[in-house]
Amino acid sequence: MDRIPILRIGDLLLVTIQVDMHDRLAMTLQDDLTERIVRDRAKGVLIDISALDLVDSFIGRMISNTAAMARVLDAQTVLVGMQPAVAITLVELGLTLPGVKTALNVEKGMQLLGKSYS
Amino acid sequence: MSTNETAQRVSALIKQFESEILTSWTGELAAKTFRNDDTTQRHCRQFLALLPAALAGGGEDINSRHWDDVRNQLNEISAQRAKAGSTPNETATFVFSLKQSLFTILRRELVNEPLPLADALWAISTVLDQLGLYTVEVFQKSRDQIIVRQQHELMELSTPVVKLWQDVLALPLIGTLDSARSQVVMESLLEKIVETGAAIAIIDITGVPTVDTLVAQHLMKTIAAARLMGADCIISGIRPQIAQTIVHLGVNLEDVVTKATLADAFVLALSRVGATISRG
Amino acid sequence: MDTDGTFDLGQFNSPLLTRYAGSADLHQVLPLRGDEHVVNVRKHVREHALELKLSLVDQTKLVTAASELARNTLKYGGGGVVVLERLTDGLRKGLRLVFADTGPGIVDIELALRDGYTSGGGLGLGLGGTKRLVDDFVIDSRPQEGTAVAIIKWKI
Predict the structure, then answer these.
(1) What is the pLDDT of residues B147-166, one digit of tens each?
(2) Cβ–Cβ gap C68/A61 under 8 Å
(3) Which domain holds residue C132?
(4) In the predicted model, is pLDDT for residue B275 greater than 70?
(5) What's CA B5's distance to the chain center, in Å?
(6) Within 13 A of B122's CA, how many CA atoms are on the CB side?
(7) CATH number of the domain that C125 lies in?
(8) Which end of chain C, N or C, is less surrounded by CB atoms within 10 Å?
(9) Which of C23, C64, C87, C91 is most worth mutating to test chain B (most B CB atoms within 10 A of its CB)?
(10) pTM (2 decimals)?
(11) Which CATH number is A95's domain given?
């Protein structure tokens, strides 16, 4: 089964989601990320969804859960690159992802992470 | 003559005398100062070509699927007329003026059959009346759609998002914030955030007369959507009455930073993005 | 027209489904039996939305709604189908989707339509939110018989 690749940059993990994920793939990603945070002693996780034109409640919750689990493991998560149409739709659905930090793009996301863990 | 027989009879007669009816109909339209140009000629010809089959198959029920082609034709004609700025009258006239031409043919061909003639005249009347009303309805709907679209475009023009500073946007809201408008506002703001990479958006509601639960919801949605794209919002311009309403309604503004004036909000925004203001 | 050959629309004792799927000339029937089918539905709905020239926001809302309902059909309805149909109403053009299953049905629809309702331990049906994403939303559910949800998005 295909997996979404996770890149390590220092003590940061970068995930770029570029495919229309089915639920199982999303769950696998969640598991993989949690495992990698522990294994690589990561302090930050950057989830780049700039290529996604769709984020539904399942993916939304996956992202929330991932951020929550990362926090428990002492790592910060930043979600970057949400497209305007996706943001509007998620908010209309009632999903505002309160526990997840956000940034406009990877660069700003890294700045945000750089600031938070010192 | 049963209704079905009548319909069949009328249908056959229309087919038989198609060109005669066409000439008389277009003549009638020209006389009533409806445009008599190539387009009108074409519309009349097409309509007459479709009419017999519709009658034969669907009888007097213009909503049956046999009449689909005829209705679609009328849709097109009405839509074109609406765009060209005609009145609903003109469009209905297109249909009603066919009556005279058809009556003439029917009276001549059924001159020796008074009862069938009466049935046929009645059938044509019923059908053309229904179709005439249909075109008016369609015309109205089409005009409404055009108005909605124009309103939408106007709204886009009247919700300017301005860049106050590097990374700081301001969105002065003026007027009521209904559902349609707030959609446009949200879209404009988010697009500007992408364009400028702004991290802070100041939403100034000095120009919003009333804030009720719905308006508050729209504002909350806008703030949530901006946040998902990495931008924080500050609401400014909250007048005392609005503050009262907000508390009264139980709107939860705990996670939202608010400032009384746009200036105050701007100062806060600047400090957030790391700029300092010094008196020189 | 794509059809999963093993599917018999008649098995759905659903007036909604019969009413919508029975007559249409231009419709597609897509199966909802596995995860990949949900992705497949998104793909098809996206294509239709593009053909319909919906605005980007409306497109996103529609595909997201379809994804939500497809998942519900799969996870809560035990699998089912979705019928896609292009509509015209006078001058408007639209797309109608009817999701149907023969699952346990929803006992309290009012409750399910309310925001924040969850029935299966944390993962809610999300019907209230989904309803806000579309123009028309009709739900017909009978306990022990199944559920059908019909949604329409119009091109303004």
Answers:
(1) 888 887 777 667 789 999 99
(2) no
(3) 15-155
(4) yes
(5) 41
(6) 11
(7) 3.30.565.10
(8) N
(9) C91
(10) 0.76
(11) 3.30.750.24
